Fold this sequence. Notes:
Elements: E1 9-14, E2 17-22, H1 33-46, E3 54-59, H2 70-74, H3 79-98, E4 103-107, E5 110-112, H4 114-121, E6 124-128, E7 132-134, H5 145-155, H6 157-166, E8 170-171, H7 172-178, E9 183-185, H8 190-202, H9 206-219, H10 224-239, H11 242-253
Parallel strand pairs: 2-3, 3-4, 4-6, 5-7, 6-9
Antiparallel strand pairs: 1-2, 7-8
Amino acid sequence: MPATDAPAVNCQLVDGVATLTLSHPERFNTLSEAMLGTLAGALTELRDESSLRCVVIAAAGRAFCTGHDLKEMQARQDHAYYQDLFRRCGQLMQSIVDFPLPVIARVHGVATAAGCQLVASCDMAVAARSARFAVSGINVGLFCATPAVALSRDIGRKRALEMLLTGEFISADTALEWGLVNRVADDEQLDETINTLTTSLTAKSALALSTGKAMFRRQAELPLEQAYAFAADTMADNMLAEDVSEGISAFFDKRPAQWQHR
């Protein structure tokens, strides 16, 4: 089947976990216009899924994602086109940050340029031990400006600049040390490690997960005093939720909680 006929992203929802699989392996899952639009659309649709607890972004083939489709970009020598393309990419990354529930990257192979940006934009990431990461636009004369936004917020300025200015690959173990990923698994245990993480999340209250993600993102942007004030207000509101009463009762009764918010 020609690449243009294949769906850019496949979505599977099982037991509260939505897996969005980038499905253009013959293109190394580049963030083509089709991929950007389909992935953004899938995330929008999932916002209304009441059973959802988390999203996993995975990929088919040998690579996670090698960034923008350079051939597609080279064919359009137009400033307005480039502005729109990178704006849409930024909106996709922001939609991951703003998504109400945790989004996890499942990384194998390579994640380069905007593919590395995709990993950095997710709330959590699990990588195969053989995975490698780079922001390599500098090697073709193009500074990875939009990936720099997510990367600098994820691993710090000096490490981000080293990656951005050298274009060199880092290993999964280095990515773990630097904070780009949360867990590294032997390649054959990658899915098992993902399942362990998602199983933990699906046992939680959806209200607590969404409240926690929104609160955490917001407080990180505030000065310390304002962050504590915002945290106190958030926690006070959260304490009045039915799920908290149920969770505390279940804790004392030594039984599984029956969450009200699905």
